[in-house]
Write a structure and sequence with these properties.
The protein contains three helices and 14 strands. The protein is an alpha+beta fold and 203 residues long.
């Protein structure tokens, strides 16, 4: 099997935030419905055929707290992903709520042109939080191999959302979020995620 047919590596962590911080952040997410807007894609476009979710656009009050908890994990994540160490210039942060029938189609998190604004996304990190007992199904993160094999089938790996856990992977990796089902149609039953991108200044 060629390197192009291998699924990109990922790193997972559990119990990322202290229980008190996790509970406070979840409470904020559950009360955030009126502050969320339809999620956009690169270039600030709304394309529901490729991404259907709700995002918080702004500077959330918990931003520094989650960065402070995740940044110390980065050296170990970089090593596990078999990447070269780099100096993080900033973290981009986004809260996303996946209500009923929400999804994100296959895409990469890297960008081109003026959108990069002097920095590149290097590592994508997804932190999970949701109400318990769990009220949704689906919402699996799927990582895809760079190319199909000789049979035309592209290998993939699925990662289930784990409460107060995270998954990290190279931002160039092709990935998607499979459709979420919330039978109650209740916002509080959503699959919530905080996306973080560790960025590096242009070399």
């Amino acid at each position: 099997m060629s390197a192009l047919q291998l699924v990109p590596p990922c790193a997972t962590r559990t119990s990322v935030l202290p229980d008190e911080d996790h509970a406070e952040l979840l409470g904020w997410a559950l009360e955030s419905e009126s502050s969320l807007r339809p999620s956009r894609v690169t270039g600030d476009h709304y394309r529901p055929q490729g991404r259907r979710a709700l995002s918080y656009y702004g500077d959330p009050p918990w931003r520094q707290r989650i960065v402070d908890n995740i940044e110390p994990l980065l050296p170990g994540i970089v090593e596990e992903l078999q990447m070269r160490p780099f100096e993080t210039s900033s973290f981009e942060v986004e809260l996303v709520a996946y209500t009923d029938q929400c999804f994100i189609g296959p895409h990469r998190d890297t960008g081109t042109g003026s959108w990069r604004q002097g920095e590149d996304r290097v590592i994508s990190i997804v932190y999970y939080l949701y109400r318990e007992p769990i009220a949704f199904s689906g919402g699996v993160l799927r990582l895809w191999a760079l190319s199909p094999g000789s049979s035309g089938v592209r290998a993939s790996r699925d990662i289930e959302p784990i409460q107060n856990g995270l998954v990290a992977f190279p931002s160039w990796a092709l990935h998607e979020v499979l459709e979420v089902k919330v039978p109650s149609q209740d916002f509080s039953g959503s699959r919530f995620a905080i996306n973080l991108w560790a960025r590096r200044a242009h070399q």
